[in-house]
Amino acid sequence: MDFRGYGKGAVILVAVSVLAMIANQFAPQPAATPLSELPADTAPGCIARGADPAPPTFASAPDPNGIADRYVFDRLVEYDRRSGRLVSGLATSWTVSDDGLEYTFRLRNGVTFHAAPGFAPSRALTADDVVFTFSRLIVPNHAFHRIPETGNADFVTVGMNGLIVDVTRDGEDLVTFHLAMPYPKFLPNLSMDFASIRSAEYAKAMKKAGTPDRFAVWPVGTGPFAVAATGADGVRYAANPNYWGNRLPGAAPQPVEKQVVVPIPNAGID
């Protein structure tokens, strides 16, 4: 870069800026605060669009509404931002076949889904919910494949639609993914928002009631926060008192008395 004509002051200013950028790049970054240590009224899951006349819907990134998925839903595996490693989510363990074509997951016991208007779960999480979650993404004519804002685009973008051949139920708490070829990024991809595990029972109830779109408008997951109300001004969340993570050793129980709504204006990003 030619700095002639700009004077010594400009050169010094540029040099200081560059040094500051380098120092910031290598400075230690603060560790993320675990969700269990955040008060309910500051939890990053409490985010919704509030300027639209229609009730907000939920999606995965880059739509800001997708940030809510992080805390309404859980995935089989999760990405731990502190350690940079994959950790157990709804799956307590998994095995990989020698040829890399089969991944078998053992599910966590006693995980309950949220309730919603017109729906009360009658059972805990099973392999049926995992099979449903991925079948609706894989099968084009699935009844819930085209329900809006449910992660289909991201599933295709990362190439999972051509990778997963089948997902089979091997027991109440066992499920196996069958792949077309070995793929080292398969597990990391399962920590993305499109892989959020959804309730097959809830989808069946909404279809029977003739309101399948409610599957997207009022999401039902297993996460630490559940939708308590929706409206034109946003979405209200409440901490999930039955959250399975509260039962883990050393877990700090979520407060259950607080609710919060944080409207985000629609900036023409749809």
Task: Give the termini separation.
Answer: 40 Å
Radius of gyration: 22 Å
CATH architecture of the largest domain: Alpha-Beta Complex
- Helix tally equals 8
Tell me, what is the CATH class of the largest domain?
Alpha Beta
What general form does the structure show? globular
Explained architecture:
- With 270 residues, the protein is α+β, with helices and mostly antiparallel strands.
- The protein has 2 domains: 1-30, no CATH class; 31-264, Dipeptide-binding Protein, domain 1 (Alpha-Beta Complex), CATH 3.90.76.10.
- It contains 8 helices and 11 strands.
- A 4-stranded antiparallel β-sheet has the order 4-5-7-6.
Give the topology.
Layout: H1 7-26, E1 48-49, H2 69-72, E2 77-80, E3 85-88, E4 91-96, E5 102-107, H3 127-138, H4 152-157, H5 160-163, E6 164-171, E7 174-179, H6 186-189, H7 200-208, H8 214-217, E8 225-231, E9 234-239, E10 259-260, E11 263-264
Parallel strand pairs: 1-11
Antiparallel strand pairs: 2-3, 4-5, 5-7, 6-7, 8-9, 9-10
Quick overview of this protein structure:
It contains 8 helices and 11 strands. It is an alpha+beta fold and 270 residues long.
Keywords, please?
single chain, 270 residues, alpha+beta, Dipeptide-binding Protein, domain 1, 2 domains, 4-stranded antiparallel β-sheet, 3-stranded antiparallel β-sheet, 23% helix, disordered N terminus, disordered C terminus
